[in-house]
Write a structure and sequence with these properties.
Elements (H helix, E strand, L loop, with lengths): L1 H4 L1 E2 L3 H4 L7 H30 L4 H37 L2 E2 L2 H15 L4 H25 L9 H18 L6 H11 L11 H17 L6 H14 L14 H30 L7 H7 L1 H28 L6 H9 L9 H21 L9 H19 L6 H10 L47
């Protein structure tokens, strides 16, 4: 309580908008930079999403631009309202407390901003920011010695999350929407309990497809022989009667799953590295080879490939052991498959999926009538989560995820780094830890406390 009541007398110019003494001009500057960056982000995002979803011409003509402008308005408003609330709160309180420049200013700004965004996107933004806030709070607790980090904690969390997600995936009406489609794409429709074909029907259809091909004479070459050999190996090996991968035996089923997802993971990482590689293509041509032989490419491929192969292999093994297909198998298979994250450790992935799992369980509780429904819960959670991240961005940047800090710098054209964090060190959060070499030049005519580095007036 003593820390919360501690205050400093500086005004908003001395702490926040150190680049300009006028609050109105500071708001305009932040608004301009936020608008430009928001247009770039959402213009690219919505255009790529429209292409991937194969939208029709009507969408491009009538819906694309309004959606881009609405999301741009939301993000621009979030940045603009924050600096406005920053100044207003200082004028109301007459001083700065430890919570006011970050959490206090961001809470009303974030809540008003999220109401501008489309309802269909609020849930996704809430999950993203809740994930950021949870990781930030965890880092704060570790820095204060309240929590001791667990070795391979992200892997353990991913194992638990994967086990529950795969269990819901196997249950009837367990998952819906994008989550269900994503898991179906990753592990395949063969792991869904309600398969459309019975084993006998599937075998007869396979035979009917194969027999006509055997009558056609084909030129004998290495490719044909290899294909025939692979068909024999895949289709004539051991397969349990409960397994629904009718075109493969259990061994080839796992191997094919690994190869498919390894290739996808490798290509995804390659695509993510293309912009940075081509930016330096003419100055450093040798970097082109790193696009294909980078270690992270193989790590992501190994992570996705081993996840699928371990999950499928464990499921097949349990079907052989218990002589039945049970949803509970997914708990064991998902947990063991989660160990694959050792190839590609990512706190971001683990935390996001854990947040998504909590959301899934919460909505299932609402459907079952076990959990009450709170109106505007997504907007409130978004506002609180964003406020926690802004509190860290102001008071202890070292606790914030580096990627989110870079995003804030882009959104404000670097102005977030111009705050006078040396004056905030009195609160004991090491606010200036990464800004030791920065001292703002302030006009003494507009300051309450004599500035450390006064602006020379002509």
């Amino acid at each position: 309580m003593a820390a919360l009541s501690k205050s400093i007398p500086h005004n908003c110019y001395e702490i926040g908008h150190t680049w300009h003494p006028r609050c109105a001009m500071a708001v305009v500057h932040v608004s301009r930079s936020a608008l430009a960056e928001s247009l770039r982000i959402y213009g690219t995002l919505y255009l790529i999403a429209a292409i991937l979803r194969k939208r029709k011409l009507d969408y491009y003509l009538y819906k694309l631009l309004p959606e881009i402008l609405q999301s741009t308005s939301f993000l621009t408003a979030n940045g603009t309202l924050y600096i406005a609330c920053f100044c207003i709160l200082r004028k109301i309180l007459g001083k700065f407390y430890i919570w006011s420049p970050g959490f206090g200013a961001a809470l009303p700004a974030s809540y008003m901003a999220i109401l501008i965004e489309r309802k269909s996107r609020r849930g996704l933004l809430t999950i993203y920011m809740a994930n950021q806030a949870t990781e930030t709070l965890f880092r704060m607790a570790v820095a204060r010695g309240t929590i001791t980090p667990l070795r391979h904690g992200e892997v353990v969390l991913f194992c638990i999350t994967a086990a529950l997600f795969m269990f819901f995936f196997r249950c009837k009406d367990g998952l819906k929407g994008f989550t269900y489609s994503a898991l179906k794409f990753i592990v395949g429709k063969e792991e869904i309990p309600t398969h459309s074909f019975s084993p006998e029907a599937a075998f007869s259809k396979t035979d009917r497809k194969i027999k006509p091909c055997e009558e056609v004479s084909q030129p004998v070459n290495i490719l044909t022989l290899t294909k025939k050999l692979m068909d024999k190996v895949c289709k004539h090996g051991p397969r349990h009667r409960c397994c629904k991968h009718y075109g493969d035996n259990c061994i080839s089923y796992c191997i094919k799953g690994f190869i498919r997802m390894f290739s996808i993971g490798y290509l995804i990482q390659c695509c993510l590295r293309i912009p940075s590689t081509f930016r330096h293509l003419f100055t450093q041509p040798s970097r082109l080879l790193s696009l294909f032989y980078n270690k992270e490419n193989f790590q992501l491929g190994a992570f996705l490939g081993s996840f699928v192969s371990i999950y499928k292999g464990t499921s097949c093994f349990l079907r052989w052991m218990r002589n039945l297909d049970d949803e509970l198998h997914a708990l064991v298979a998902g947990c063991l498959a989660g160990i694959s994250m050792m190839f590609y450790k990512s706190t971001t992935i683990s935390m996001y999926l854990a947040s998504k799992l909590v959301e899934t369980i919460y909505f299932k509780g609402i459907e079952a009538g076990k959990v009450p429904y709170f109106p505007h819960a997504d907007s409130i959670i978004y506002a609180i989560s964003t406020s926690i991240c802004f509190q860290a961005a102001v008071m202890e940047v070292q606790s914030l995820r580096p990627s989110y800090w870079k995003f804030l710098l882009r959104l404000t054209k670097g102005r977030f780094a111009l705050m006078n964090r040396k004056a905030l060190d009195v609160f004991g959060t090491e606010a200036s830890k990464y800004f030791k070499d920065f001292t703002p030049k302030l006009d003494p005519r507009y300051t309450v406390v004599p500035p450390e580095l006064p602006l020379e007036l002509s």
